[in-house]
Amino acid sequence: MKMKKIIHYFCLLGCMGIIYASQTEPVEYGGIRFFSYYDDDQPTVLDLTPNSSIPLKDPFTLSFDLAIWKTTPFGFITSGREGGETLFLLTYIDYQHPDTSYFELSFGSGSESLSIGLPKSELNKQHWFHTELTFDLDQDFVSMKIGNIKKSRMIPLTSSVNLNLSFGANPFSQDTPNMDIRRIHLQNRYWPLNEGIGTVVTEQNGNENGILKGGSWLVKSHMVWKKTYSKMLNVQNNHFIYNQNSNSILVWSGDSLTTIDCDTWSSSTQLISEPMNEKLYLVEDGFNQAIIGFNGGGNSVVATWNETKRAWDNYDPLSTSNEYYESRSVVDPRNGDVYMIGGYGHYKVKNHIQKYDKETETWTVVPVTNLNGELFNPRGSSAATITKSGESIFIFGGLGNESGDQKKGFRYFYDLWQFNVDNLTLEKLWEWDRPPAEMEPKSVLIIPERNEIYMLGEIESEMGDSLLFYRSPLNHPNFEIIQFSESMRHPIGMFFLDKTNELGLIKFENRPNANTHVLSILTIGLPIFPTNSLEDQASLKMFDEMSSAMWILLLGIIIVGSSLYGWRQKQKWVEIPSKDSTNVDNPSEVKPIDTIDEGISIKVNDEFQLWVDGKSIAINGNGRHKQIVQLMTLVANSPENKLSHEDIQQSLWPLVQDESFVNSLNVTLSALRKVISPYEKEIIHQNKTVAFGKGIRVIHTD
Fold this sequence. Notes:
The protein is mainly beta. The protein has 6 helices and 50 strands. The strands form 10 sheets. Strands 2, 3, 5, 6, 7, 8, 12, 15 and 16 form a 9-stranded antiparallel beta sheet that branches. A hairpin with a 5-residue loop joins β33 (about 385) and β34 (about 390-400).
């Protein structure tokens, strides 16, 4: 038994070493965000030579990528010093010109400098400028290049330098621009800045590491939802819309309109002439750069929001047929044509696609041709978006049924359709055939330009509701659970911030005891990474100092140990003859005596193993799989293969609140059911217990 554990340990070390050696660095998402003293965070300083200087004699170049994510009047980008003397100083200056920001490279004497101006309109966190500072010590020559602009001049220089290098705040000043820095190169030294965690900044080639004080790792913006805006509202019925043209969110609440600037996350509130009708549906008209609205019941006149009057033009609150509530609408960016999909009214859902005639101010059903003989079932509450080219409308899911009749009950669809606006053809692209049972989609966002679809779903249980957050490619249904946060509760809609490549979530939480309501906006960078990837990366750094001889020794131990382990395992397995041969070519297909060819078999005790219909299922023991293994092992070792919520929480999630526990359990059960498909129903979750069905056989070994 001890030998097996030793072998397992070294096999694990070997696998981690292989993973580490083959790991690709997420350089494109690496970097550090620097804060100034104008921010709540402390001014950021990155010291790349905390203990020793860098000796430089030959011509050298300091290069890095720079982005200004928010304008500030002034700040130090980087400085080089020798002893207590400043050799060079790169400064960001914003206050000298209303439209231009300047980057000035000055030197120890202070009398000479190089300056490059960049339009302020080009400075944002998505626009990286590759920056190079070159020093020729023999020729007394210095050049500075930012993006495609280069300046140079003759400057008296010393023949050699022992350089102390830092970015951001320095001992003489706390002035730091709101900047992002990544990929720092100097001679044979390279700091990629992709750690994502901690305060140690690794030098890639084995030299001294740097130290970070303050600041934030950019990769964390792809892992953690950030609350960017919050506001108390006194009215429960509110209307929200994201205006992509102005990159702002408009919130109509009672007799006021709040405009939230998504660049600065500041807001302004104005009184409006009259409160909004609660049944008014809103949609952005990109062609006319306007916000339009119409009564939710359908067949109503389309109105336009007048910014100057702060009122609706051409609005008729009485025009509606009450046939198309919960419809979804989009506007063709090429011509401003308005389309409406589905809807509910008079106890029926519809599968109509309608188009608005601006001349007659009426809606007409479009004569659609269904391709491949697929029926677009009647539905409401679907998600719809139109491509930037205006050629296609993507439609996902909704609530309805095959007949549209409410008496026959409604269910949620998880299918994706593409409507060709020019050819008037409708094609079913795919259907997700295994969504979690009893899940209710709360918000769906389709992003054609990223080939992605995001969905927030909710599962009700006795101990509270649980949220599931899914992502799938748009071209095929491969839904995976991604980053979840308790702060995401009470969602009312998602939106895509094209300018900053972020996902936004609007949530609205009622607080009946305080008679107030809280509007919050959360954002996260795309693509979204799992938070445990930071922990995995940190744990793998222990291998960075291992020598080649150590790896060779480990490899030898792994080979010998694996051979012994394989020999020992063969004593416990029997060969199952196939129809064509009595030999088994693939050891992974060999089954223990007690497994069954139908249903599910699991083996616990020394080592967890799982078979579905006699076929071995590989579970790697990491992340969500680790929780699956732990949960199945607990239930397998419990009396009657049944375990209560209380016992599960104490064993697997002892430190979390009940609400978080229920969500974690439901997510794990959802992942488990996917692993054991098509036997999902063999996992029984009811009456605050989790149990195995009769189709699961537990094998206990001595």
